[in-house]
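Review form for a predicted model. The reviewer records the input and the model, then writes brief findings.
Reviewer: anonymous (R2)
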Amino acid sequence: MIIAIDGPAASGKGTLGKRLAAHFGLRHLDTGLLYRAVAHALVVKGAKLDDPTIAEAAARTLDVAQLDEAKLKARGMAEPASIVSAIPQVRAALVDLQRNFAAVAPGAVLDGRDIGTVILPDADVKIYVDATPQVRARRRATEFRAKGENVDEALILDDICRRDERDRSRTVAPLVPAKDAHVLDTSDLDVEAAFAAAVAIVEAARR
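Model under review:
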């Protein structure tokens, strides 16, 4: 079984992806980490984030098994990753990597921004997770504060809105719900309620 989860930043798709994978005995890939890894490689090299040649080369050498989630999810990597993800050559370079991951038995849960529309258009279940920008900013601020970071929620909201605009307006693989995706708005749901709703969606699709 293959489950595709899409949605904007801080909508809760990553948490749902991990929990659904554990619940159904599937493998999980947070595809956002791939773009963060490419961005990190460029930052380390001192290269421009919008350099398509260097970015594509970095994307083609990624190893999913070597992704350092803690390092790549550091607060400063979100904006660079958003810039890199808008490069068509980078997105093209990562297509096979994601599809190959999903193809391994017994299946997988992939979360990102173009999984149901581009990467896995034939996925067994597609879920588009969303929430208002204000709710997403509050969640992200809470997440950073839990790590002991002093953050400005207004700045986080500005960053989220900027990333939403970039994701939705890019010419290649823009962020949109797949036509056959189940839209799950988590604005008024806590983690457990969102998970229960997602499980219900998957179980209904399996039946």
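Findings: The chain has a mean pLDDT of 95.
Further findings: The two ends are 13 Å apart (CA to CA).
Recommendation: see findings above.
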